[in-house]
Each structure stands twice: as C-alpha cells, then as structure tokens.
Amino acid sequence: MVPSDRAAAARRSGIPGKALAILYLIAAAAPLLAAWATGIEPESRWSELGAGLAMVSGAMFFLQFWSSGRFETLSGRVGIDRTMGFHRIAAVVALLVAFAHPLAPLVPAFIDDPQGAFVLLSQMLVRPRLLSGAFALTGLVVLVGFALLRTRRGVRYEFWRATHGPLAIVVAGLILHHALAVGDYSSAPLPEAVWLLLGGGALLTLFSTYAVRPWRMWRQGWVVESVEPMADHVWQIILRAPQRRAFRFRAGQFLWLTIAPNSPPFHDHPFSIASSPQMLPKLRLIIREAGDCTNAFGAIEPGRRVAIDGPHGGFILPSGGAHVVMIAGGVGVAPLVGMLEEAADRGDARAFRLLYAGRTPGALAGLRLIESLSPRVDLHVVKMVDALAEPPAFEQGPIDRRHIEEILLGFPPKETYCLVCGPAGMMEIASNQGRVRPTR
To answer: How many whole angstroms from its chain centre is CA 172?
Structure first.
C-alpha cells in the first residue's frame, strides 16, 4: 500500500513512536542510572540485582500513569490501540519484575538450602520495615489481575474505572515510601530526586485526569440533540455544542463521552466520531449496545448534558494516492462514515471502495447515509452478511481471503490506501492478506 502519508502525519499531534520508545527506556532506567552515579558499593551482586529490579519495576509503574491513552502528546502518533496495548503489557512486565525483586538476593540461599530460603523469604515479607513493599506488591497483583480478568468476569466497566485509579494511587504511594525509606540508595540526593520526580509526574497526570479535564469537558456545553435507531441495537446520537464553542477534528478521530448525571473520568467511554467537520457545531456518533452503559443510550432524552474529551487518535483519511479501500465490520463503520462524508464535503476525486460486513442486513448501520453520499463521491459499496444472503443486494459472508482480493482488484498497491476498522478477528483476516495494513 501507499507509504504513510507525510502530510497527514504532520498534522497529527504527538511525539513520534521511536522517540517515545527512547524516552520511555530512559525514564524507566533513570533510578538505576541515578543509583549507579552515587558510587555506593553493593553488598553483593545478588542484592544489587534485587535493588536494580525494584528500581526498574517502580519506575515502570509510575510511567503507567502517562500511558493511559488520555494524553494526545503521547498517543497522537502511535494511536490509542497501540498505547493501551503497551499499557497492559508494561503492567504485566512491571509485576513480573517486582516479583523477581525480593527473590534475587536469595538466589544463593535457594541453591544451597531451598527450604531455608523460603523461610527467609517469608520472614522478610513480614518485617515491619518492609511492609510497604509487601503491600505494594500485593496491590500490584490485585491491580493488574483485576484489569486482565474484568472482561471475563463480567465486571462493570464503570466499577473498574472507579476502583482502578484510586488503587493505583495507593500502590504508587507504597512504592514511593518503600523506595525512599528502605532502598539502599535512598539517602543519596540524586536517586531521591529521581523518585520524587517520578512521583510528582504521576501526581500531575492525576490532577489533569481527575480535575482539569472534567472541568474542561463540562464547560464546553455539549448536549444531546437527538437519539435515533440506526440498525439492530445500534443508535445514532447527535451532539450539539453552542455556536461559540470551537471544536476542531478530523473525521475518524474519537472522543471520550460522559452523559449527565455521571461524572468523568469514572463514567466516560470512547466513541468514534461518525461525521464530517462540516457538520459542526454538531457531531454524529454511531453506538452499538454493548454493556450496561450503552444499553441505556436509546432512552436518553434530547437536551441531556454531555461532557466530551477529544479529539483523540490518528485514524484519519490520508491525502494522496488515487484509490481508497475501506473494510468495516459492524459498528466499526462509524469512523469510515465520517471519512466518506468528509471526502464528499471536500470534493475528493479519488475512487473509494467500501466492503461492509455484518451478521445480518439489520446489523449494517448507516447504509442509507453511506449510499446517499454516492452522488458526491466516487464510491462503490459491497455489503456482506453472515446470515443467508439475498444477492445481488448482499454477498454471503463471513469475510475471507477471496473477498479481500476482490475489493482490491484493479487498484495498484502503490496508489492505494487501505483503512480497516471492526472486530479483531475481521481485522486479522484483512491484514493477513499481505496487501492490507490495519490503520486503526
């Protein structure tokens, strides 16, 4: 496919991915480097390894506050999906490193006398001086375990959001106390300054997330203008802002939405913007019922206040190229609807093809809106359903390699952009064809 679009990338806010990776590695190693700079002689190589593991794990945990996906400077270029994926992986790595921290100094004891080593470990974990570290490790297990298992256990999203942040604050405080009060290098000015800097950075993110952002979100004055059914268990929600409110975005980006009387950040959910900037001061959202919150969206009355945080994300319509192929599954069509509408408003002369798949014809949201754009943009739509199809209106699904090859037929790879959005399984099928790279 066409290489990444430079003009579009230049408009995206945020630090490039490679620079972010370098900054992360430096920040994660900062306590270790500060300890090395002190010149303090270690008791043994194993105790030094344990101290080093503790420093890296603690630093990684404090950096988790920055990789929550709410800071466009950090996630704008790499995308919210990659940011949150890294957030989850880093949490597991930090937990594993934290577990290795108390074990490393006991490696010689485990070799010589395993049973005695376990006794030493149990005694060490209950020492009053080390309790903050033991509690921090316990809290980290609960924090990471709950986050990984919540979807499988049917835990409400709002409950998880309400407990995840406060528990993270408690664990951060315990880690900071353990590092400053117990750490072998904590008395040295430079390591102490590094830990205070990491802790202060985490506090800054909390102040932004729990105070500044909610205040900004509510003061914008957005309200619900209308709620209408768009497909089976799918709703179109139109938001409206006061004329004086400036809001700039590119079609395909997303926002975090909170509906009164709920409060951000405990009750906000991410939704793609499914409209063109030309529709402002109104925004269109296409939302599928998928939980306790979204299941109640159909009962929202016009005039209800909403708070939005955005726009976020770099999933936008690229410029350049002669052709654009879009592949959508279910409500994943929402950002692509906005892109097609934006293309029509701009008089985009490129050829567009949309392969839109769903379980049934009634699950294909926004078809009437999409087809109404055909007179204004060169658009060919292929509709596919998993249920028994009725040709020629619908093709028989699910999506496989043949359908991907057909939608790409006649479009030279070097002149074609591909945009894919939908369920993970569908995106994997599309991207595995070699010629299609998911942009989401």
So the answer is: 22
Predicted local confidence at residue 434, as pLDDT: 46
Helix, strand, coil content of the chain in percent (nearest 5): 55, 15, 30
> Which pLDDT score is estimated for 291?
67
Is the bond preceding 42 in cis, omega lying within 30 degrees of 0?
no
Spatial CA neighbour of 421 closest among 344, 355, 349: 355
Q: Dig out the tokens for 236 from the structure.
A: 């179109």
- Helix-then-strand count for the chain, H and E: 15, 11
Is the Cα torsion angle 431, 398, 336, 281 positive or negative in sign?
negative
**H-assigned helices in 331-432:** 334-346, 367-372, 401-408, 424-431
> Which phi and psi (to 5°) does residue 49 adopt?
-65, -45
* C-beta separation of 314 from 16 below 8 A: no
Contact 415, 321 (CB under 8 A): yes
The residue with tokens 């004891």 is 109
- Burial grade of 262 (CB within 10 A; 0-12, 13-18, 19 or more): middle
Q: How many CB atoms lie within 10 A of CB 377?
A: 20
Q: What is the pLDDT of residue 321?
A: 80
Provide Rg for the chain, Cα atoms: 25
Which has the closest alpha carbon to 326: 345, 313, 311, 343?
343
Long-range contacts (CB closer than 8 Å, 24 or more residues apart) made by 160-166:
161/265, 161/266, 161/267, 162/266, 165/206, 165/209, 165/210, 165/265
Residue type, 296: A
Instruction: Report whether 214 contacts 207 (CB < 8 A).
Output: no
My answer on whether omega of the bond before 391 falls inside 30° of 0, hence cis, is: no
Residue ranges with strand state E in 118-201: none
Burial 289-316 (b: 16+ CB within 10 A, else e): beeebbeebeebeeeeebbbbbbbbbbb
- pLDDT surpassing 50 at residue 253: yes
Q: Shortest CA distance to 104 belongs to which of 51, 65, 50?
A: 50
pLDDT digits (tens, 9 = 90+) for 322-366: 899 999 988 899 999 999 999 999 999 999 999 998 888 888 888
